[in-house]
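Let us practice reading a record.
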Amino acid sequence: MNLSVNIAGVTLKNPVMPASGTFGNGREYAEFVDINRLGAVVTKSVSIKPQLGNPPCRITETASGILNSVGLQNAGVDAFLRDDLPFLKQFDTRVIVNICGHTIDEYAAVAEALLGTGADLLELNISCPNVAEGGLSFGVDPKTVQRVVAAVKKRSGQPLIVKLSPNVTSISEIAAAAESAGADAISLINTLLGMKIDIKRRKFALPRKVGGLSGPAIKPVAVRMVYEASRAVRIPIIGMGGIMTGEDAVEMMMAGASAVAVGAANFRKLTAAADVLDELIVFMNENGLNDITELSVML
């Protein structure tokens, strides 16, 4: 059985990976998950300088999902290169570094700092709803998307995945803008904007009032947007949003994704990504499939 997929010229041994921000930088999960089994590890967002993130409370549960307002907390690119990347390179799996910034130059500076390192691909996070500057503001306008993608692409050495926001009118237009500016692949969806009020305390559950909604509740939106984006671009798509099982992964790939990222499920079960891979293999066996690419033509 062939499970390998090609993302922008980089071969992954299988299409399953954890979504950025849900797997740390691997250390937290390595004791419980065989990282060598994963197609890739996607890191937490890495910025040019350390970021403290948002004040607590940062996460609150909702029906069939969670709202988060972590705010891209990380130790900065220098610490990542010193401490985290060498750890990840011990494993026989691809490393995708998610990069963030408050300005276009900050994004590009992180990409430049990763030149010539062991990072296999970069994921450009222009879709985080939990920061006051950068993030979502760069991902909702096609012209701005083109500007930031072109600037980062010019200063990066690895293939560039652009992570798209669902908080837009037309995901097809945004996807096409990213591709036209030089994106080698896209990933979607990031979290949906949401809000929760604690009616007993009469306060917002999150200090920033709004947060990013993830989990099973958003999967139908994610499947629809992956489908629409796949018809607007020719570059590979990494689908995510509410994937909890192997069958969820199959659905996302039937919609047009070449690979999938498991997010909120990692908080419910440490082995979620590996379990999704196992269940995906079971589905292929039960349906007489010998190659993972056959999923895309089953619809």
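A brief commentary: Residues 5-54+71-192+216-297 form a domain with the TIM Barrel fold (CATH 3.20.20.70).
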